[in-house]
Amino acid sequence: MIIAVAGLPGAGKTTVSKLLEEAGFRVYSMGDVVRRRAGELGMSTDEASVYLRITRGARAIVMDLLNEVKDGSVVEGLRSVDELEALVERFGRVYLIYVAASMTTRFNRLKNRGRHDDPRNPSDLIARDYRELKFGLAELISRADKIILNEEGIEELKSAIVDLTSSLH
Questions:
Q1: Which of 6, 14, 65, 133 is deepest in the core (most CB within 10 A)?
Q2: Domain segments of the chain: what residues?
């Protein structure tokens, strides 16, 4: 089984993935693939993400990971049902976690994170959300096996992940 993690920017996908890694899972990040490809292409990560999906198809990013990912791993950063289906075709069972948080919470997290491509104001975040949702991210909510509302602190999130991993074993 593969665990896939999806959610809008700043929802806590990376934090959830790190907690799963601490629980013994190997984590593969689709965002790392996009950042690597962006560097190769001389584009911003947003531009590269759109460019790769337009020129190589909706599964472009996840296809870069398929040869590396092993059963029992976590794939962080799914953006579409197409990407989920690529994992299902390869591994059979995929347990999808959708991480959600309010726009205010997400904006504050992104502002404090400090990546060069993070939004500078709420309007930037709305535009980024729109791009993410156009890829099909919203459709993943209805396919999620677990939705984690990540509005509280890290201790509450850790507790949710402990409960989740206990139920998976």
A1: 6
A2: 2-159
Show the tokens assigned to 1: 């089984």
Average pLDDT for consecutive 10-residue bins of the chain (169 residues)?
A: 95 96 95 94 90 92 92 94 96 96 94 81 91 87 95 92 88
Contact assessment for residue 32 and residue 76, using Cβ atoms and an 8 Å cutoff? no
* Domain 2-159 CATH (choose: 1.25.40.20, 3.40.250.10, 3.40.47.10, 3.40.50.300): 3.40.50.300
Take residue 146 and report the two structure tokens written for it.
Answer: 């677990």
Query: In terms of pTM, does the model score above 0.85?
Result: yes
How many CB atoms are located within 10 Å of the residue 36 CB? Answer: 13
- Containing 6, the helix (H) or strand (E) segment is strand 2-6
Give residue for tokens 């948080």.
101
State whether residue 143 is helix, strand or coil.
Answer: helix
Torsion of CA 55, 96, 23, 21, to 10 degrees: 10
Q: Tokens in use for 104? A: 């205010």
Report the interhelical angle of 154-168 vs 13-22 (nearest 10°): 60
What token pair was written down for 41? 């292409």
CA 163 to chain centre: 20
